[in-house]
Amino acid sequence: MKTKRIVWGAAALAVVALLIWRTAVTPGTIEDPASYACAVYSTPLSLLPPVIAILLALITKEVYTSLLIGIATGALLYANGNLELAINTMFFNTEGGMIYKLSDPWNVGILVFLVMLGILVALMNKAGGSAAFGRWASSHIKTRAGAQLATVLLGVLIFVDDYFNCLTVGSVMRPVTDRQRISRAKLAYLIDSTAAPVCIIAPVSSWAAAVTSSVPEEMNINGFTMFLRTIPYNYYAILTLVMLVFLALTGTDYGPMALHERNAARKGDLYTTPDRPYGDDTADEVAGRGSVADLLAPVLVLIVSCVVGMVYTGGFFSGVDFITAFAGCDASVGLVMGSSVALAFTFVFYLSRDVLSFKDFTACIPAGFKEMVAPILILTMAWTLSGVTGLLGAKYFVADLVQGNAGVLQYLLPVIIFVVAIFLAFATGTSWGTFAILVPIVCNAFPSGEMLVISIAACLSGAVCGDHCSPISDTTIMASAGAHSNHVNHVSTQLPYAMTVAAVSAVCYALAGGIEAVLGGKGGVFASLLLLVIAVVIELVVLGVLRRRFAAKETVQL
To answer: Which pick of 93, 118, 145, 305 has the fewest CB atoms within 10 Å?
Structure first.
């Protein structure tokens, strides 16, 4: 042990000495930011910061320190080892620094939405609406399968935005799943799997707008029409939903999730690990004077007002049609407007009926804010890590990698695009950024035809998969927050399920590319639907094999 400490101490001193030397021999400021490029720019090492953060998070089970180390690594690489420049980059760089990420209007809007939703949840709990809904649900939803399917159904119905989906579904369904002894890790998986995977196949959603805007204007392609054509080929999203229904109906679980579900079902331990990021909140269903209406009314107003707020920002009330307004909306602004209206409605709704006193209402404001401190911290650091990774040119390294293979392996390109999109979204924590990088490349590789549709679908599918798996993805963080689950537990239990669907999806994209090669790129809607049916069959066969493989020791009885 003593020798190990000496070795670690010597290594630390060597690193400090190296950094001091680099600080002395390299400039601490950048004269011309436009022409500056660090030594690792657009090289494999540009992906090192997110890789370090992700590995540390999975190994240490501690997400905050892991993200900070990843950010510091990226800043040092960008500064070529100069400590002064690295510190300035971490906090004050206009493209990747933490201060500037927190001053970005979109990011601040999301944080304000988080706080308002936290306050709403605290109000619903204090009024007794959540407890009343839990009692009602316990008399109607009597099985673990029923609770899981109800969670999936609610997640599918709230398809307009993934952030909104995660927090709303979590706050509504948490009392129900707790009563049925479903682990918080499983609830987080259900929430996460009905957020981005549903939004990416919903024509009226903020994600449809992001995809539509990623198609280059000079290609003369209708972005929205292209989005609709990709839906049958979006294998990861559709097969994820198939897997959710299969797992719920059969009670099958495997990997780390099986341990969490066994502990929840047999011991009533919803967490498995000792960490409680939101406290022991199974007891926060306050038996107030509220009824089911005191939960449903604020949630319904929140849904309607958020949708109205989003289309308002897209110009719907200025004469723009609904679809175009949604495609051009500012989701961050719309969600803040919608949550503000819902909060004002809840204030009047509760006080006018004497469900809550004014003092209780005001007490819920700081309580709701406190509930959201953990996801706000993680989101802030995840945005900073993504920004620092962008400064290193990681996206250009990945883009060059894809373009280099486009001509040589044309009909294998959907699989290549899918895998690269997974890796890029996983490393950066952003699926929208992945769309913006890869969709233009795909459009240049296939200017028209069915291969263009399949390849764009592969890009969207892979981006959602990588986003779904990444511990630094904002959607993954939101799912943990919505379920009140330990974030690392959510990531580690979800990964085997996501990788199962990803493997099946990769096979399906290889099959789709091969069939298009035989058809000469002339496949159409019928071919896409036929391939989707085949994909679902393959998925069910794989899940059936896994069920038999793990049934003896890891299946939780319904």
So the answer is: 145
| Biggest alpha carbon–alpha carbon distance for the chain | 74
- Say if residues 272 and 263 touch (Cβ distance below 8 Å): yes
**Which residue from 154, 106, 101, 169 is spatially nearest to 336, judged by alpha carbons?**
106
Q: How far is CA 62 from CA 215, 275, 375, 394, 471, in A?
A: 38, 10, 14, 25, 11
Q: Cite the DSSP H helix spans in 255-393.
A: 256-262, 293-313, 322-327, 331-352, 358-371, 373-391
Q: What is the DSSP string of 296-313?
A: HHHHHHHHHHHHHHHHHH
Phi (first) and psi of residue 213, to 5 degrees = -75, -10
Structure tokens at 12: 């630390």
Start-end of H helices in 407-486: 413-428, 431-445, 450-469, 474-483
pLDDT higher than 50, residue 129? yes
**By C-alpha distance, which of 285, 343, 345 is closest to 137?**
285
CB contact at 8 A, 168 and 142: no
Query: Using alpha carbons only, what angle is made at residue 284 by residues 58 and 257, rounded to the nearest 5 degrees?
Result: 30
Q: Are 335 and 306 in contact (CB under 8 A)?
A: yes
pLDDT band of residue 494 (cuts 50, 70, 90) is very high
How many Å is the Cα radius of gyration of the chain? 24
Q: State whether the Cα torsion 152-155-156-162 is positive or negative.
A: negative
Kindly state the tokens that stand for 428: 């950066």
Buried b (16+ CB within 10 A) or exposed e, 244-267: bebbbebbbbbbbbbebbbbbbee
Query: Half-sphere exposure (CA, 13 Å, Cβ side) for 42?
Result: 7
Q: Say which residue the tokens 């009226």 belong to.
A: 204
Provide the sign of the torsion angle of the four alpha carbons 224, 225, 227, 228, taken in this order: positive
Taking the model in full, what pTM does it have? 0.71
Cβ(182)–Cβ(261) under 8 Å?
A: yes
CA 461, 464, 468, 473 torsion-angle sign: positive
For residue 311, is pLDDT > 60? Answer: yes
Q: How far is CA 411 from CA 25, 89, 126, 450, in A?
A: 50, 42, 57, 11
